[in-house]
Specification:
about 120 residues, TIM Barrel, alpha/beta, single chain, about 25% helix
Length: about 120
């Protein structure tokens, strides 16, 4: 049996992609995917600004809404596709505790991390 999935998606909150989360889920269903991982970019938690880089990552003020939206869609489409709540995060060793604290507040299924030294 072949399982088709996509665990790396972005949507309009990050500033460099288009489309809604629901659109991506519906497209994945149409394509016959078994899993879709919604994994937009984390905010830059260590910065004072709400959205340090508007075309790279979502604002801090949007993270809670992002999680709530994905969880609602996970429930809505549960009989059609496995929706995984994910996040893509740059890893800054100097800010490790800050990121760990912020990300631990949410029930993520997957975490995609890029190491920035």
């Amino acid at each position: 049996m072949t399982m088709i999935f996509d665990l790396h998606t972005h949507h309009d909150r990050c500033g460099h992609a288009i489309g809604s989360i629901e659109h991506y889920i519906q497209s994945a269903i149409e394509k016959g995917l078994a899993y879709i991982g919604v994994s937009d970019h984390t905010p830059f938690f260590h910065a004072q600004e709400d959205q340090l880089y508007p075309h790279i990552a979502m604002p801090k003020s949007e993270l809670e809404h992002y999680v709530a939206e994905v969880l609602a869609l996970k429930h809505k489409y549960a009989n059609q596709i496995n929706v995984l709540l994910g996040i893509e995060s740059d890893f800054f060793e100097v800010h490790q505790e800050c990121y760990k604290y912020e990300l631990s507040k949410y029930p993520f299924d997957i975490l995609l991390a890029l190491s920035i030294m």
